[in-house]
Specification:
Elements lengths: L9 H8 L3 H23 L2 H17 L10 H34 L3 H7 L2 H12 L3 H11 L5 H8 L3 H21 L6 H4 L2
Amino acid sequence: MPAELLHTSQELLNRIAAGDQEAFASLHHQYWDECYGLALAFLKSPDQAEDVVQDVFLKLWVKRSSLPAINDFTPYFMVMVRNEIINYLRQLAQRQKKHAQYVSDNSINLQQFFAVSDEDTAAVIRKALGELTERQQQIFSLSRDAGLSHEEIAEQLGLSKKTVSNTITQVLNHLRITLYQHGLMAWLAWMVL
């Protein structure tokens, strides 16, 4: 590719508008690093930054017929990049908000679980919890009933965080197996919260 095409000239934009993929590749090569660096600075994720930059170039190609009307391409293009980053961040915030709302709407502690479950299911769960060691019951209760984090439980009981985490995993596995054995598959959803 001739060196003069490495500059964002009106000729280059006209060639891209006409569908010249080689000219577009030249533009892509010229602006990729700058766009990627800007996206990475805001998104802090190489994968997300790459996705955003690819979307910008895709949108540029789709609306390539409007390129000849642009007098100063670099500011125009950087505004496109900025707008795509903002849109991406908005979408990400919306997804996180929806996820947080879902978790909030669907989270349940053990007391609420017993209150809304039928007596047979509650009896199966009580029996399964009764089969646990006293230490397992204590750790699980502090986690589910008191809402303490693994670190807080470890500190309170003088255990390592890994011990607390492993114990809760063992208790949840025991409860899952018990619920499954009693045909209470619907309650398994509660076990993943």
